[in-house]
Design brief:
By secondary structure, the chain is an alpha/beta fold. About 40% of the residues lie in helices and about 20% in strands.
């Protein structure tokens, strides 16, 4: 009998087991059985041709309609072209050369039904070109073959395949292990299966791989989808219970401290949302276990004020706060804005207020020593910094609160390094973002983070209008873009022009556009190329300066101060101005090669305009025509200012990422069937069931099969990841 954890090298012949592991990374029987069919074929069906992408490895099913012998163009001899149809006039062509073509000609007769597998390409020009497979592998559905009856009466599973291993080889391998599979321990308790009318695990695996009809497929997918949600929710429930057991120093609110003084001097009224979220955070800071909360809100919703008020509460209770920012420009901006908001409360000293220190990697030795001394002595209640805060030499007198701005820009290890600097337990942690990236959305839907949301914009924020500028299709639109910039400057306003690259040699890690699809073309536009082109051309006579991560800190600071003071008309920059930069007089932003930026970055960038009551304008310049994925992404950004709606667009395009690992994209997901946007109801049901089970059996002593499945899912690397987060 075959075991679920048995190596495939023992369960299958080496010629099959080897390619399964080398091409698909499937090493055990369980991993093979969790390699579910991508879709199911029916009689006469061919893969939808409008879904094909050149270069993709596909499996198509259809009927041979005719064979054509054609002469070779540049040498003697012939080759064979086979036309395959799907019964709906869709066609794909197979090409065979050399001796193989004669063998194939004897097997692929008109009327023959078969599956064909290979890399698909387009032959011929434009939309009239023909889809073709060169030398594909194939399997016939012959009347004498048992697979013929299966094909005629039941769905035929089509598996995700790869070079070196075809779908039908995977199907046969699955059949071998299913036929010899021993009893399976079911990780889903019987009462949970009964409540949700779910099949047993063994029945579900049989049905998903060898269905008798579409009903089998539906029942199997329902069970296996719930499995993924339930096991993940059990992991997260365990994690929440473990986190609740960690000690943290309570930081209760004082009625006569810095926070009260700060609130009494605020020149504006907090929104209802800011007050409500502030109360949530204040209550958690007063507890004996660490807060771990995500604060998400639109660009300009006032997250920084909420975070600062929480910092002051911690300082009033004798602790310190650290604010971790992804770039030096943002760290400097936070330092200036916090110092400005505090006024004389930020002059330092035990009684008069609290010091605000800045620590970045490019500071001079004297400045770094002074900031580190203020952090270690406690003279600085607030320490703002970049990755420099994570260095081993940096010490705090009593770090009680960590604020991470734009948390997706930091790795788990980096955030953990700062958290470990707290003594007497773990610090309270607040992470902030304006547009949740897919993994953050995933963790939110799975219920792993406590979430606060700011939806109101403070008074004075103006609406932002966004348009896509198709530079290649309509060059005069780009000319009009520069005219609009001149018009805004003529009204006494200022402009940003953002490029995805600095120049020939790139700068620091937070300075570039996120990788986006459709980049296989000319190099991205660079600040050092675009700025002189504008100065000598359409923006001649305006005061144009550049800003990027390769400038020295004092240079970057000087440029930002000059821009803030209105001494610069147009700032040509990289993404260093993506978050936190606050220049109220800036009213227009032009993003060059906008298709090279991620959805989250585009939303963040345009949030830099319209901040001072002036209507904001954002122009997304691209060479991509309408109907392409890159253009669709830009159109989605232009269509809404709702950052949470855009996060769903981002999630649909990039998938969830590995919810239990460090991957930020969806290519390495532990989820095989579950999709967050489609299956939120399943996730909610599984969360409720997992929480109830863990409450009664926290160590899973009565549920060893579930414990085993969790251990298998996590592995050493994911277990370490969860421990850190």
């Amino acid at each position: 009998m075959t075991r679920f954890d048995e190596p495939l090298t023992k369960a299958l012949d080496p010629k099959t087991a080897g390619p399964l592991e080398s091409s698909l990374n499937l090493a055990t029987v369980g991993e093979l059985l969790r390699h579910y069919p991508r879709r199911y074929a029916e009689r006469g069906e061919l893969t939808a041709l409008d879904a094909l992408e050149a270069g993709e490895h596909v499996t198509v099913v259809g009927e041979v309609s005719r064979l054509m012998r054609k002469p070779m163009r540049n040498r003697s001899g012939t080759w064979l072209e086979v036309e395959v149809v799907d019964g709906r006039r869709n066609k794909i062509y197979l090409s065979f050369f050399g001796r193989v073509s004669h063998v194939v000609e004897g097997r692929l007769k008109p009327g023959t039904r078969a599956m064909f597998s290979g890399k698909v390409g387009r032959f011929g020009r434009g939309e009239g070109g023909k889809w073709q497979l060169n030398h594909p592998d194939f399997e016939l559905f012959e009347e004498s073959d048992s697979s013929a009856a299966e094909f005629a009466a039941a769905p035929v599973p089509i598996y995700p395949a790869a070079n070196g291993i075809s779908s039908w080889v995977i199907r046969r391998a699955v059949g071998v292990v299913l036929d010899t599979l021993g009893p399976l321990a079911d990780p889903l308790p019987a009462e949970v299966r009964s409540r949700h009318r779910l099949a047993g695990l063994a029945d579900a695996l049989e049905a998903v791989h060898r269905p008798r009809d579409r009903g089998d497929v539906g029942r199997a997918r329902k069970r296996l989808k719930f499995d993924e949600a339930f096991v993940l929710q059990s992991v997260l429930a365990q994690r929440r219970r473990a986190a609740a057991a960690w000690p943290a120093v309570p930081r209760p609110r004082r009625d006569d401290g810095l926070l009260a003084g700060f609130d009494g001097r605020l020149p504006f009224q907090l929104t209802e949302g800011q007050v409500e979220v502030g109360e949530e955070i204040a209550a958690e800071l007063a507890r004996e276990h660490p807060m771990h909360r995500l604060l998400q809100g639109e660009v300009g919703a006032g997250k920084t004020v909420v975070a600062l008020r929480a910092m002051l509460q911690v300082i009033d209770a004798g602790g310190q706060a650290a604010l971790l920012a992804p770039t030096e420009v943002l760290a400097q901006q936070h330092h200036r804005s916090i110092t400005r908001m505090l006024g004389d409360l930020g002059t330092g000293g035990v009684f008069g207020g609290t010091g605000v220190a800045l620590l970045t990697g490019s500071m001079g030795a004297a400045g770094r020593r002074a900031a580190m001394l203020d952090a270690a002595s406690g003279a600085a209640g607030i320490v703002v910094g970049t990755h420099a805060l994570l260095q081993e030499k940096v010490r705090f007198a009593d770090l009680g609160f960590v604020v991470v701005d734009e948390q997706h820009r930091f790795g788990v290890e980096q955030r953990d390094a700062l958290r470990e600097k707290a003594g007497g337990g773990r610090p309270h942690v607040l992470v902030m973002t304006a547009t949740p990236i897919p993994r953050t959305v995933a963790m939110t839907v799975f219920g792993d983070l406590e979430v606060s949301t700011l939806t109101q914009l403070p008074a004075g924020r103006a609406p932002i209008t966004t348009h896509v500028v198709p530079a290649s299709d309509k060059p005069h639109f780009l000319e009009r873009t520069w005219e609009r910039v001149r018009e805004e400057v003529g009204l006494g306003r200022q402009a940003y022009i953002v490029c995805p690259r600095i120049g020939e040699a790139e700068g620091d890690e937070g300075d570039l556009a996120e990788p986006a699809a459709d980049d296989e073309r000319r190099p991205p536009l660079a600040v050092t190329d675009v700025a002189p082109m504008l100065v000598d051309g359409p923006l001649h006579g305006l005061r144009v300066e550049i800003l990027h991560g390769r400038l020295q800190p004092d240079e970057k600071d000087a440029v930002m101060r000059a821009f803030t003071a209105g001494e610069i008309d147009v700032l040509v920059s990289t993404t260093v101005i993506e978050v936190g930069v606050d220049v109220h007089n800036a009213s227009v932003m032009v993003i060059m090669d906008a298709d090279r930026f991620g959805v989250s970055q585009l939303h963040q960038l345009r949030g830099r305009v319209g901040r001072g009551g002036l209507p904001g304008l954002c122009l997304l310049v691209t060479d991509f025509p309408a109907g392409t994925p890159a253009r669709d992404r830009l159109d989605a950004v232009a269509a809404t200012l709702d950052g949470f709606e855009l996060s769903r667009v981002d999630l649909e395009q990039r998938r969830e990422g590995d919810v239990l690992g460090a991957a930020q994209s969806g290519r390495r997901s532990s989820l095989k069937m579950l999709q967050l946007l489609r299956d939120e109801e399943v996730i909610a049901q599984a969360r409720e069931e997992a929480a109830a089970l863990l409450a009664d059996d926290p160590h899973l002593e009565a549920n060893p099969a579930l414990k085993s499945e969790i251990d298998r899912l996590l592995g050493d690397d994911r277990a370490e990841y969860l421990e850190k987060t």
